[in-house]
Design goal:
The complex is a heterodimer of chains A (about 90) and B (about 375). Chain A is α+β, with helices and mostly antiparallel strands and about 90 residues long. In chain A, about 20% of the residues lie in helices and about 30% in strands. A 5-stranded mixed beta sheet of chain A has the order 2-1-5-3-4, covered by helices on one side. Chain A starts with a strand and ends in a 5-residue tail after the last strand. With about 375 residues, chain B is mainly beta. Helices cover about 0% and strands about 35% of the residues of chain B. The chains are: A alpha+beta (about 90), B mainly beta (about 375). The interface between A and B is medium-sized, with 19 and 19 residues.
C-alpha cells in the first residue's frame, strides 16, 4: 500500500531535495526500506546497523510519535521523518 | 622517502564543525573550508599514494556517522555508499553500532586503494576501493575475545571508546597494529585475521591487576617510520618505547617518560616520530594529576623532544604562551611534515593551529578561532 512520507530538511541531501515522497509498505520498517531503494543511503541515516532508530531522528505516523519500526501504517497515511530538537 | 616542504604542502584539519585545509606554507598559505560544515570531523586524510583521494570522517548530530570522499582536493565531496557498520547481532545479545568513524589510515603502499578505519566503539573496518565500500575486519570485530579486550565498548574517552593508531608495517602489509582506548595495543601478523595483545610493561593504574594482559589505555601509538621495529606510545600512564626487533616471544614496553621532568610528568595524548630518525619523537605533556584537567601543565604549553629514544627530553616552548594557556591537544592533532628542517604542527581544542619550521625550536600561531580541533594531518601532495 502507498503512504506519503514527509522528510525533514536534514535528509534532503538523500532525496534530491524532495521533502514529499511516496513509498510502499505495511510497516514503518517496510516504508523506510522502500524509500532506501529509491534513495540509497537514506535508511542507514535513520536506522543503525542493529535496526535501532537513531536517537535524534523522530518518526510520526500522522501526528502520533512512534519509536517502534514495526508500527503498522495504513493506506493513505502520512509518515513524517524529522530531526529531533536536540541540543538546545 | 624524503619529501621537501613545498608550496603544495597541505595541512588537513578535522574540527567539531567540519574539515578545513590549509594549503601552502607561510604567508601564501590559504585556508579552505569548512567541508561538511556542522558535522564533527574526527579525521581528515589525504592518500599519500595517489595524492588524489581525501577521506573525511563525518558525524552528524542527527544522522550518525559516515565517511565522505573527495577526488579533487576537497572541492567536491561524495558520501561513501557503504560506510563502516558492524555486522548484525548473531545471537539475542546486544551488538555494537558504529557511533564515530574515528581514525582513518591509508593502507600499505603496495595496496593503493586500501584504507582502514577505526571506530567508536572499537571496530576495525577496511576498504579496498579507495574508501567507498567498507567491510568489517572479522578477525577483530568478530574475535571471540573482542568483548573482553574492549570491555564491550564501555570504557573510553568522553566521546566514547575508540580504536585508533592503526599502523601498517611498511615492510609487510600483513603486519599491523591497532590500539584501543580502552583495551590496549594489539598486533596482527596476518592482516587482521588474528590478533594478540602487546601491552607487557605498560602501567594500568586503573585496573586491579597491575600485570593485566589487556585493558590498558594507549592514547597514541606509532610504529616508527624510520625503524618499524621500534614503537613509541603515549599512554594514559606514561610514555613508552618497545623494541620489537628483540624477537622476544612477548616483547615488553619500557617507560621512557620517567626521564621527563617530574613537575611536568609524562601524560599526554599525541606522540609524533621524526620521519627519518628512529631515536627522535615529540610529545605534548598535559596535566594528568588527580582530577585530570588534560590541559597544559601549569597553563604553560610546551612540546618535549627526545633525540635519544627517551633517555633525555628537551623542552621546546619558544613562541608559545608563557602563562594561563590551558590547551588540550588531542591524539590526531599533532603531526610533522617531511621538510628539512622538519616542520611540526598541532591544533588545540580551543581552535588554534600552531606550527614550527625548525623541528620545534620555535613556534608560531598559524590559525585561530577555528572550532575544536580533533585532527591535524599533513600531506605533501
Amino acid at each position: 500500500m502507498s503512504v506519503r512520507v514527509h522528510v525533514g530538511s536534514i535528509l534532503h541531501g538523500y532525496t534530491g531535495g524532495a521533502s514529499e515522497l511516496v513509498a510502499e509498505g505495511a510497516t514503518l520498517r517496510d516504508v523506510l526500506s522502500d524509500l532506501d531503494r529509491a534513495h540509497p543511503g537514506l535508511l542507514f541515516r535513520i536506522v543503525d546497523e542493529q535496526g535501532a532508530l537513531r536517537p535524534h531522528v523522530k518518526l510520526y505516523v500522522g501526528d502520533r510519535f512512534v519509536r517502534e519500526l514495526g508500527t503498522r501504517v495504513s493506506a493513505g497515511a502520512t509518515v513524517h521523518v524529522l530531526q529531533a530538537l536536540s541540543g538546545g | 622517502m624524503k619529501t621537501s616542504r613545498t608550496a603544495s604542502s597541505t595541512l588537513l584539519i578535522g574540527t567539531a564543525k567540519g574539515g578545513f585545509a590549509l594549503e601552502g606554507i607561510g604567508r601564501a598559505a590559504k585556508l579552505r573550508g569548512p567541508f561538511l560544515f556542522g558535522a564533527k570531523t574526527h579525521d581528515l586524510r589525504a592518500d599519500p599514494r595517489s595524492g588524489r583521494t581525501w577521506l573525511m570522517s563525518s558525524t552528524g548530530g542527527h544522522l550518525g556517522p559516515t565517511i565522505y570522499r573527495s577526488i579533487d582536493r576537497g572541492r567536491t565531496w561524495s558520501e561513501a555508499p557503504h560506510p563502516p557498520r558492524f555486522a548484525p547481532a548473531r545471537r539475542k545479545t546486544a551488538a555494537p553500532s558504529v557511533k564515530i568513524n574515528f581514525w582513518l589510515e591509508p593502507g600499505h603502499a603496495d595496496e593503493p586503494d586500501v584504507w582502514y578505519c577505526g571506530t567508536s566503539p572499537q571496530g576495525l573496518f577496511r576498504s579496498e576501493d579507495g574508501g567507498q565500500t567498507w567491510r568489517g575486519v572479522d578477525g577483530w570485530n568478530r574475535n571471540p575475545a573482542w568483548e573482553s579486550w574492549t570491555s564491550f565498548g564501555r570504557d573510553g574517552t568522553p566521546d566514547g571508546p575508540v580504536l585508533h593508531s592503526i599502523q601498517i608495517d611498511p615492510r609487510d602489509a600483513r603486519h599491523m597494529t591497532v590500539s584501543c582506548s580502552s583495551g590496549g595495543t594489539f598486533e596482527s601478523l596476518d592482516q587482521g585475521g588474528s590478533w594478540r595483545p602487546l601491552n607487557r610493561g605498560v602501567a594500568a593504574d586503573f585496573l586491579p591487576n597491575p600485570d593485566a594482559e589487556y585493558g590498558h589505555d594507549p592514547h597514541c601509538m606509532r610504529m616508527h617510520p624510520a625503524d618499524p621495529d621500534r614503537w613509541y606510545q603515549q599512554n594514559h600512564c606514561g610514555i613508552y618505547r618497545l623494541d620489537r626487533a628483540a624477537r622476544a616471544k612477548t616483547p615488553s614496553w619500557t617507560r621512557i617518560g620517567t626521564r621527563m621532568p617530574k613537575a611536568v610528568g609524562d601524560i599526554g595524548f599525541p606522540i609524533v616520530p621524526h620521519p627519518t630518525d628512529a631515536d627522535t619523537v615529540w610529545v605534548i605533556p598535559m596535566d594528568g594529576r588527580a582530577i585530570w584537567p588534560r590541559t597544559s601543565v601549569d597553563g604553560r604549553p610546551a612540546v618535549y623532544m627526545t633525540r635519544d629514544g627517551g633517555r633525555s627530553w628537551r623542552r621546546q616552548d619558544r613562541g608559545l604562551p608563557r602563562s594561563h594557556a590551558y590547551w588540550t591537544v588531542l591524539r590526531q592533532a599533532f603531526t610533522s611534515d617531511a621538510g628539512e628542517p622538519l616542520g611540526l604542527y598541532f591544533g588545540t581544542t580551543s581552535g588554534e593551529l600552531w606550527g614550527s619550521r625548525d623541528a620545534g625550536g620555535s613556534w608560531r600561531r598559524l590559525l585561530a578561532h577555528l572550532p575544536r580541533i580533533y585532527s591535524v594531518r599533513w600531506s605533501g601532495r
